[in-house]
Amino acid sequence: MFLSKMLTSKSLPDIGRRFGGRDHTTVIHAVKKVEELKMTDSQIAEDVELLRRMLEA
To answer: Which residues constitute the domain of residue 24?
Structure first.
């Protein structure tokens, strides 16, 4: 969900629907959680960055 939000212009409800009909608040929570984890765990930050680069390639 985090990468979907960062890499697309899709709305929160659209992203939620694509992830099994989740609510937009679930997407907000997921995005905030990943942002928090990236700041406290360098391995997660590296993994997210690697995934982002792979998807953009």
So the answer is: 2-56
> What is the domain count for the chain?
1
Which residues, given as ranges, of the chain have pLDDT below 70? none
15: exposed, middle or buried (Cβ count in 10 Å: 0-12, 13-18, 19+): buried
Alpha-carbon gap, residue 26 to 24, rounded angstroms: 5
Residue 5's Cβ-count burial label (10 Å; 0-12, 13-18, 19+) is middle
Q: What is the pLDDT of residue 10?
A: 97
- The residues, any chain, with a CB within 8 Å of residue 38's CB and separated by 6 or more, are 44, 45, 48
